[in-house]
Specification:
Helix 5 runs parallel beside helix 9. Strand 9, helix 8 and strand 10 form a beta-alpha-beta unit. Strands 1-2-3-5-4 form a five-stranded mixed β-barrel. It has a five-stranded parallel beta sheet with strand order 7-6-8-9-10. A three-stranded antiparallel beta sheet has the order 11-12-13, with no helix packed on it. With 473 residues, it is α/β, with parallel strands linked by helices.
Length: 473
């Protein structure tokens, strides 16, 4: 008789709990996302992929470790620099698990390069590219006329820089005919409006063509002057048939437009002095107003972004957004596999063509060689047609799934006039019986959210509800 029998009890093995793979990965993902919902990580970019969807996929690595990173289009389009392999960056995001592969990854929402700001990095990248094309060469710059009779000015009509330029030109060169093209000189619309001014002065209208163009803007921070680092604007200035003077910011401020212009003036007032051979200082009031406006706009954008991040991390809405992003990542994975299959198919066909060509070269009979070449061309044409048909089929399937995914988006539902109602504890309200008069509730709308207090509750008559009690409002 065993000892356990003598003592009157028996040992039992603990009951096993068997997980499914998806359940285990989902449980791990939930633990990781709760523990690491907001992390800052630094490392080096490698294996960068940017599909047509606009999402970024890359690996963040150091000497002994690495982790996958995904940055969705909504965050990637806010980057002020171009990510590249080998670039050392710092990013912010949440740690999650991509369930389809069971891999740990970072869902990044913000990223900046180390050692240089995003604006400076974008500036250096564009400067190097345009310099390699020869747009900065002195040989291509046009001379400035010594005493032009018609001067075109592209600037903000409300800026102090314009008033000072006009004062200098009026005192020193009264016979000059000044044509002003009003344009924004700060913000996203500024490059487009300045380019429109250049096109306007290139065309000979009823006033005749101007002899020189001045692009003027007061000083400011790197963000204030970012509009003049636009590639399209720089190329438009370089292509101008009329000499262009860039008078942007202070003497220490440099933009891409300064490098491609025919002449750079240290300040807007200096531009007026250069064009009429005199020197005068200008009023800097517009610069301070522009800087204050830029700071206020940046602050409002920062607060709105923070509210959006907090909303995206809240309750059921965060789960829905996670599902949408997971579906977007699956679409990108299928796109990658389709592109890889296409490349492999083309490589196989290329190898077959090379093999056939090598075999043909062993024969001396020209007629047989010509017949084989025609057969290969026919097969290649058929293969290309089949490949195009296959790609069109996959593209149609991808478009259908994308449309289905967008139709399931909660934002689309909210845009149709629906709202998500939460009680004071943040629980989604589905039944009026969950609330009582005096309870606080919040409603998530398509744009923004509201808070309210319950004054009465009433369920539908079909559900057995009753009318409000007497005295309730």
């Amino acid at each position: 008789m065993g000892m356990s029998d003598q003592l009157g009890f028996q040992f039992r093995a603990p009951e096993r709990h068997i997980w499914t793979v998806r359940a285990l990965v989902s449980a791990v993902r939930g633990l990781v996302e709760r523990q690491y919902s907001d992390c800052w990580v630094e490392g080096e970019i490698s294996n960068l992929r940017i599909p047509d969807s606009g999402h970024l996929y890359f690996t963040l690595k150091e000497e002994t470790a690495q982790i996958r990173v995904v940055m969705f289009r909504s965050s990637a389009r806010l980057l002020r620099f171009r990510p590249e392999n080998g670039l050392h960056v710092t990013l912010r995001g949440r740690i999650t698990v991509y369930e389809d592969r069971g891999e740990l990854q970072i869902s990044a929402e913000f990223m900046e390069p180390q050692g240089a700001g995003a604006l400076q990095l974008a500036f250096e990248q564009l400067k190097a590219r345009l310099q390699a094309e020869g747009l900065f060469d002195a040989a291509r710059k046009k001379p400035i006329p010594p005493l032009p009779r018609k001067i075109g000015i592209i600037t903000s009509p409300q800026g102090a820089a314009l008033r000072d330029i006009l004062n200098i030109l009026g005192r020193r060169h009264r016979s000059a005919n000044i044509l002003i093209y009003p344009a924004q000189v700060q913000g996203e619309a500024a490059p487009t409006e300045v380019m429109a001014g250049l096109r306007h002065f290139q065309q000979s209208g009823r006033h005749g063509a101007v002899e020189v163009i001045i692009i003027a803007r007061g000083g400011g921070s790197a963000e204030d002057l970012a509009a003049f680092n636009d590639e399209g604007l720089a190329r438009a200035v370089a292509a101008s048939k009329i000499p262009v003077i860039a008078a942007i910011g202070h003497e220490t401020d440099f933009t891409i437009v300064d490098f491609v212009a025919d002449l750079r003036a240290p300040t807007p007032s200096a531009a007026a002095e250069l064009v009429i051979r005199s020197r005068q200082e200008i009023d800097a009031q517009a610069e301070e107003l522009n800087r204050r406006l830029e700071r206020a706009v940046r602050y409002r954008l920062l607060m709105a972004r923070q509210e959006l991040i907090e909303l995206a991390q809240h309750g059921a809405f965060a789960g829905i957004m996670h599902g949408i992003r997971r579906g977007q990542q699956r679409l990108d994975e299928r796109r990658f596999r389709l592109e890889m299959a296409q490349r492999q198919l083309l490589e196989r066909n290329h190898r077959r063509l090379e093999t056939g060509s090598a075999a043909v070269r062993h024969y001396d009979a020209r007629r047989r060689l010509a017949a084989i070449r025609r057969q290969l061309e026919t097969e290649a044409s058929n293969l290309a047609a089949a490949t195009r048909a296959c790609l069109l089929k996959f593209r149609a399937a991808l478009d259908r799934r994308t449309a289905s995914l967008e139709a399931l988006s909660p934002v689309a539902i909210l845009n149709r006039g629906y709202a998500l109602v939460f009680d004071g504890q943040g629980t989604l309200v589905k039944d009026a019986a969950q609330l009582a008069p005096g309870d606080e509730l919040s409603a998530r709308l398509a744009r923004g959210q509201v808070r309210a207090r319950v004054t009465n509750t009433q369920r539908d008559a079909a559900e057995g509800g009753v009318s409000p009690k007497a005295g309730e409002q």
